[in-house]
Amino acid sequence: MAATKRAGDHRKLSAVAKSILRDVREDFMSKNLSSKDLTQHYVGISIAALQSKYCEGAGHSQVDFDLALKELEGSALVKTGPVVPFDNPPGSSVFVIGLRSKREYAYLTEAGYRAAGETDNQTPRTSQPRVHISGGTFHQSQIGIGDQVTQTQKVDIENDAEVIERLAELLLTTGTPVGAPAKAEIMRLVEVTRAANLNEARPIFQKLFGLASEGAKQAAWGILTAIITKAMGM
After folding, report:
1. Same domain for 179 and 154?
2. Which domain holds residue 206?
3. 98, exposed or middle or buried, with CB in 10 Å at 0-12, 13-18, 19+?
4. For residue 82, is the peptide bond before it cis, meaning its omega torsion is within 30 degrees of 0?
5. Is 58 within 8 Å of 211 (Cβ atoms)?
6. What's the N-to-C CA distance of the chain in angstroms?
7. Per-residue pLDDT tens for 183-205?
8. Using CA atoms in the order 140, 146, 147, 150, what is the torsion angle rounded to 10 degrees?
9. Per the structure, how many domains does the chain have?
């Protein structure tokens, strides 16, 4: 018999894995399930929905998502299902006896429930950014982002390339890879912000920075606010 997986140290999980774990826990809580369900097989959150959120919405690659989910399964914090018997081709000389997951949804274990709660409690608080606008330049005071602090920086808000680069850097500070899809979204965000179209800018901003730290969100929104303020001659 195969050895039972032991719960791993959730502190060593990647940022994406920790975020997915919190989503699986929130799904568990929303279903009003009991502690007994954590020891049994319940229908959890859709893996397709998680994939859409992290790959399409947050700009992570499919590889990043797959590895993060693999981390959670390998640490026995999350399991996937439904579980079905292996398919054995007719006439094959090898017959596999066992079960496999169809990987349609992810559900929480007892260890995963505890780890998700501890991860929430350990989320670092960030200092509030202070934004100053002078002429065409955005001045960013010292800002805490996660457990890092960036020194005073200047961004020329009239230079689209510089603004796009800075927004991409803010995403990177939270562990979010900035591939072609995310870069295109950032470019679109800057474009609609310059047109002072906040109704269109807000959902794009949420899509990009929804999983970012509070410090990164506020710094990014501060840059966009400076662009709009400058365009309005304020």
Report:
1. yes
2. 131-231
3. exposed
4. yes
5. yes
6. 71
7. 898 899 989 888 888 788 888 88
8. -20
9. 2
